[in-house]
Amino acid sequence: MTDFLELLKANPYPGRGIAVGQGSVYYFIMGRSENSRNRVFVETPDGIRTQAHDPAKLSDPSLIIYHPVRRASQGLIVTNGDQTDTIRDVGEFRAALMTREFEPDAPNYTPRISALLRDDGSFALSILKRVDGRCLREFYEYEGVSAGKGYFISTYRGDGNPLPSFAGEPVEIDWPAPEAVWNALNADNKVSLYCNTNGTVRIFNKNLGD
């Protein structure tokens, strides 16, 4: 099992990340450009959405303004893009993501990462990434997870130009408290963190002083 806090501290730029534990999920976003850093998480009736902290500085909303979290009939959907809505509308996790691919942001071709947390404790994780010019779609199904443990996936392995996509299976991690996760994220690059623990939601936004 990997120490989640040490994993985050050692990586200045994992990009966006999803961690799923027993009845809990963390989702964070980071940014290097002014446009990416100019965001906050805002609660909605069914989850959260991203919003420009300063609307005057918003230059391109296409890949940064979306609903990362939505409660739907199939469970709690968590993603790093508008595939949240695709999963909700199609109604089946794998079938929905088979219609999508990585983001069109050359040269990084940011992977799309997604999770579905079902009410019975099982969950699914997925990453859609560019390999040799094609889309590789990877899916992982879990019947559940023990207390104090979780699984983590992110968009990038670390900083770089172009940014290197996450590789391998989701990482088995221990499960620290929300404040510890927020503090472990790189201070310059972190933007927002969503925490849902058995239905109790906490949000951290750097632009709002957290």
Task: Give a quick precis of the structure.
The protein is mainly beta. The protein has helices spanning 4-9, 34-37, 83-90, 93-97, 178-184; strands at 17-21, 24-30, 39-44, 47-52, 69-72, 75-79, 112-117, 123-131, 134-142, 149-154, 171-174, 190-197, 200-205. The strands form two sheets. The chain has a seven-stranded antiparallel sheet with strand order 3-4-5-6-7-8-9. A six-stranded antiparallel sheet has the order 11-10-1-2-12-13, with no helix packed on it.
Explained architecture:
The protein is mainly beta. 14% of the residues lie in helices and 39% in strands. It contains five helices and 13 strands. β1 (17-21) and β2 form a beta hairpin. The radius of gyration is 16 Å and the shape is globular. It starts with a helix and ends in a 5-residue tail after the last strand.
- Roughly what fraction of the amino acids lie in strands? 35-45%
Give the beta-strand count: 13
Radius of gyration in whole Å, from Cα? 16 Å
Order of helices and strands: HEEHEEEEHHEEEEEHEE
Number of helices: 5
The coarse silhouette is globular
End-to-end C-alpha gap: 29 Å
- If you average the pLDDT, what whole number results? 96
* Secondary-structure content class: mainly beta
Give the low-pLDDT segments: none
Features:
210 residues; mainly beta; seven-stranded antiparallel sheet; 5 helices; 14% helix; globular
Q: Layout of SSEs?
A:
Elements (H helix, E strand, L loop, with lengths): L3 H6 L7 E5 L2 E7 L3 H4 L1 E6 L2 E6 L16 E4 L2 E5 L3 H8 L2 H5 L14 E6 L5 E9 L2 E9 L6 E6 L16 E4 L3 H7 L5 E8 L2 E6 L5
Antiparallel strand pairs: 1-2, 1-10, 2-12, 3-4, 4-5, 5-6, 6-7, 7-8, 8-9, 10-11, 12-13
